[in-house]
Amino acid sequence: MVSRRAPIVVAVLTAATLALGTALVPLLPATAAPQAAAAVDCSAPAWAEGRSYTAGQHVTHAGRGYTALVSHTAHPGAGWDPASTPTLWTLDGTCDGAPDPDPDPTGPGEEADTPVAANGQLRVCGTGLCNERGTRIQLRGMSTHGTQWYSQCVTDGSLDTLAHDWNADVVRISTYVQEGGYETDPARFTALVNTYIDKLTARGMYAIVDWHMLDPGDPHFNLQRAKTFFTAIAERNNGKNNIIYEVANEPNGVSWQTIKSYHEQIVPVIRAKDPDAVVLLGTRAWSSLGVSDGANESEVVNNPVNASNVMYTFHFYAASHREEYLSALSRAADRIPVFITEFGTQDYAGEGANDFAMAQRYLDLAASKKISWVNWNYSDDHRSGAVWTEGTCASGDFGAHRLKQAGTWIRDRIRTPDAF
């Protein structure tokens, strides 16, 4: 813990009030002593923007339990989260006996308490992903569903759950290009990505900016849109050290040479604005390293993209993609840098029965070779591949009791301690 000089009291406020929403709330003196953080059972719903709270209501936020002091509405964008507004909330304690969060997690002699604080700017090293100290690491996390459909599932409350309960390292922000996505309103979807980046940055998590092209499968169809999008995102966020760019979700119906040509045009666009970020490159046949088209990883190994600090993506769905896919991933990871940016325990459509045994074989391989992975998907879609039961996102309650079977399974694996 870093010692700090106590503030000098220059004035005492004896009777100040602040209007927040419909409530008049007394201002606390600037020198009020910090509230003690005893252990509490955090079974209450997670706090969320846009919701109304009554005096005495209990919530959880950032690994702590709070009680509302007054009735109020947490207006979006107001910044009235419990940790920031002691006039609205009283701290009950940390969840289940967890230690009180350190206000200076990266002080001398202390370990960082977020993935980004622990690892800093990532880079590709050989066939792996390394942190700023050159140590090879594995990131584990979740992908959003399409933000044109499920933005209500990406809230302060849901991201607090990912960061502080699931202990996720990374979130993939899936911006569909077609299907009611980016092409319908580029400014809106660009702004939405930036909003999510800011939320993830505040929580010390890595953000994968996913250009979720799917149909048409030729990435050149959206090349100009991609250039516009990535220029805007990279220019706005180039001062951050937690951004990873995924430039083509699942190319399909075209050759590796065609996909490679696209990558060699889009990577320089990002490099012009953000020269240090890792860029993830989609592979042939829905990012299967070509396996779904009867090929294999050799086409990428023998004809890599002419760019540095890049990785190649691999997607799998355990109930559909069996031994041939697993073997190709294993061989590829020994020759080129690979990142699993999407997978599920179901069939390739993200639905049907879960094959946890096959999925575990993939994750065991990924752990042994430190291949980073992201699971599809963090929403309450009706399919079995969505982690939350239907209605969860609207309720704002992201407790473990709201998880589907696949959600419980993946949460347990993300919560496994990181080996940073």
From TrEMBL:
<dbReference type="GO" id="GO:0030246">
    <property type="term" value="F:carbohydrate binding"/>
</dbReference>
<keyword id="KW-0732">Signal</keyword>
<dbReference type="GO" id="GO:0000272">
    <property type="term" value="P:polysaccharide catabolic process"/>
</dbReference>
<dbReference type="InterPro" id="IPR017853">
    <property type="entry name" value="GH"/>
</dbReference>
<dbReference type="GO" id="GO:0008810">
    <property type="term" value="F:cellulase activity"/>
</dbReference>
<dbReference type="InterPro" id="IPR036573">
    <property type="entry name" value="CBM_sf_5/12"/>
</dbReference>
<feature type="signal peptide">
    <location>
        <begin position="1"/>
        <end position="32"/>
    </location>
</feature>
<dbReference type="Pfam" id="PF00150">
    <property type="entry name" value="Cellulase"/>
</dbReference>
<keyword id="KW-0378">Hydrolase</keyword>
<dbReference type="GO" id="GO:0005576">
    <property type="term" value="C:extracellular region"/>
</dbReference>
<protein>
    <recommendedName>
        <fullName>cellulase</fullName>
        <ecNumber>3.2.1.4</ecNumber>
    </recommendedName>
</protein>
<feature type="region of interest" description="Disordered">
    <location>
        <begin position="92"/>
        <end position="114"/>
    </location>
</feature>
<dbReference type="InterPro" id="IPR003610">
    <property type="entry name" value="CBM5/12"/>
</dbReference>
<dbReference type="InterPro" id="IPR001547">
    <property type="entry name" value="Glyco_hydro_5"/>
</dbReference>
<dbReference type="Pfam" id="PF02839">
    <property type="entry name" value="CBM_5_12"/>
</dbReference>
<feature type="domain" description="Chitin-binding type-3">
    <location>
        <begin position="44"/>
        <end position="92"/>
    </location>
</feature>
<dbReference type="InterPro" id="IPR018087">
    <property type="entry name" value="Glyco_hydro_5_CS"/>
</dbReference>
<comment type="similarity">
    <text>Belongs to the glycosyl hydrolase 5 (cellulase A) family.</text>
</comment>
<dbReference type="InterPro" id="IPR006311">
    <property type="entry name" value="TAT_signal"/>
</dbReference>
<keyword id="KW-0326">Glycosidase</keyword>
